[in-house]
Amino acid sequence: MAKVTVRYWAAAKAAAGVAEEPYDAATLAEALDAVRERHPGELTRVLLRCSFLVDGDPVGTRGHETVRLADGGTVEVLPPFAGG
């Protein structure tokens, strides 16, 4: 398992109530499962609309279970932003 930092932006930050927090996960899917477990409710709904960056690289349409996380890495949770 990698130790990663999940950073929340805009609506995700508001729903989580924090700007960032640590997680232990091997894949993006595992990290997001842990986020949903820690923050049931609004953040779970916000995540459905989000895009993700892992260590600065867009995840795009790749399956979250195929996106491996590196120890010390960062997952950025990006909700849609107004105006583009």
From TrEMBL:
Gene3D superfamilies per record: 3.10.20.30
Alphabetized Pfam families for the sequence: ThiS (PF02597)
The name this protein goes by in its record: MoaD/ThiS family protein
SUPFAM superfamilies in alphabetical order: MoaD/ThiS (SSF54285)
